[in-house]
């Protein structure tokens, strides 16, 4: 299997799942689509919790000390949020969704445009924030195989069905985000030439779990957390771990 096959499979899974969801969604009443979205929000919170609990992993505490893991995740989210806010990443992501909607010949109706952007942004975050995105793409680029991304492809395919059924065609456009993000990480993995140390991976996983909590809150319409602005936290977390390791 060639390097990058996992990303190709993931893009195809999102496109196929979204297509199925669009066919099903048009036949579902509005209240049913709301229930589906709420269910996705709850499951996203479950996945977020399972990822965030990595902050208690002994591998991380042995590397940085028992009191540092939570502070590292906190620092990553705060610093990453500041960087992302200054760069206006959330706004840029939403603007990308609006641009795609216009390029794809979407409706000029303001409600349709907002629904497209919401589907695009939400699906892009869910498909690209999780730890499997980064770890799987890096491993694929390093020649370690595409098994992790193939597993992620199956999960994203089923999620895309539910997302598209409730959020519309914007979810299908998220396949572009998956291709760009995972493709870039695969290339980065090929350039790195070695695996990311395990403590750094654990910190990244825990930080990704915190960001997914924000995605879950958005899906449940509890609070519109600007998760896009916090995406740099996924880079900051491993850097903070390395800094603490150097200082010890």
Beta percentage is under 5%
Poorly predicted sequence stretches spanning 5 or more consecutive residues:
none
Q: What kind of sheet is the major sheet?
A: none
Helix segment count? Answer: 11
Shape: globular
**N- to C-terminal distance:** 42 Å
Number of strands: 0
Mean pLDDT across residues: 85
Can you put this structure into words, describing what you see?
The chain has 248 residues and is mostly helical. It contains eleven helices and no strands. α1 runs antiparallel to α9 and α4 (68-87) crosses α10 (198-219). The chain is globular and about 60 Å long. The mean pLDDT is 85.
Identify the notable features of this structure and list them briefly.
248 residues, mainly alpha, 11 helices
SSE topology:
Layout (H helix, E strand, L loop, with lengths): L4 H21 L4 H23 L5 H7 L3 H20 L1 H15 L6 H20 L1 H11 L5 H21 L2 H23 L5 H22 L13 H15 L1
